[in-house]
Amino acid sequence: MRFLTDHYFQIGHSHYVAGKPCQDYALSRSSEIIACAIVSDGCSTGGNTDVGSRILAFGTLQAIRDHAKASNGSLDTAVISIVARQQQLIETVRPMLGLNRSDMLATCVYAYITRLGALIHIQGDGVIGIKYRSGWIDMHRFDWAKNAPFYPSYNDEEEKVYIINLHEGIFDTAVMSHVRFWRSPDGIFEKEEISQISFSEGRNGFIFRISAEDLSIIEFIAVFTDGVSQIGSLPNGNNLLDWRRGVTEFLSFKNNVGEFAKRRMIRGIKDMHRIGNGPIDDISFAVIHIETDGVGKEDTQ
């Protein structure tokens, strides 16, 4: 089994025309024994969250590296270890750069694979796409009520303010929705599952685990920011493209060598622009390709 990774992020139309920076970021890394894919999305109403999203992405990458060195591939304590290290790095780097806490308001979605299995952790909101060798795609979308995700940088005091101001102080009210679809190889969407998650559960994020046995039948694991749910007719953003179609298009790789995710997303966005669609919000994408034969297809495009 071999892992190949790539990532890409692009500014959305709304930020481009307003002269604002891209607040999304993406990273991916692989070695002989582990791989990870990370996306982060800065809050538009926060501070310098374009910087915050990058710090969070790099902090998550380092947290995964630290865990991998200490765990021998076991993922049993991965989430606890990674979250603690994220917080430590954020609190160390932020004051060194003179940043405010509002600059760190960013979501994070990461996939972490070893030969013993994989996990995907959604901290805030975002989208997951898992493509099987059979052609089936398992899609998950996570949204927070009032478009106000619980950010991984929040400390205890900020958590209290968040729950009181945004969710009426109700600790166990449903604040997070999880929508799941399967897409068959012939393009039919099936098995819709919708669940509501309470704040007491959702504040720690959603964890999706994959066994080592299931890894052998998976070809790609991809993580997206919620920008994949905000692709629409420019310039007003009406007639949003179905997010499931966006995930499908961005996972339709013609090859898996080099910057395969970057090429696929750039090509997909160009195709969408031809029919009047494009990213309204910033969008980022990171993917892990799981090879079982150790041979990649050469890029002939």
Description:
With 301 residues, the protein is of the alpha+beta class. The protein has a single domain, classed as 4-Layer Sandwich (Phosphatase 2c, domain 1), CATH 3.60.40. Helices cover 30% and strands 35% of the residues. The protein contains eight helices and 14 strands. The protein has a seven-stranded antiparallel beta sheet with strand order 1-14-11-6-7-8-9. The chain has a five-stranded antiparallel beta sheet with strand order 2-3-4-5-10. A two-stranded antiparallel sheet has the order 12-13. Strand 6 and strand 7 form a beta hairpin. Helix 2 packs across helix 3.
Summarize the topology.
Layout: E1 2-10, H1 13-17, E2 24-30, E3 34-42, H2 49-71, H3 78-96, E4 106-114, E5 117-123, E6 126-132, E7 137-144, H4 156-167, E8 174-183, E9 189-198, H5 199-202, E10 206-211, H6 212-215, E11 218-224, E12 231-233, H7 243-250, H8 260-274, E13 277-279, E14 283-291
Antiparallel strand pairs: 1-14, 2-3, 3-4, 4-5, 5-10, 6-7, 6-11, 7-8, 8-9, 11-14, 12-13
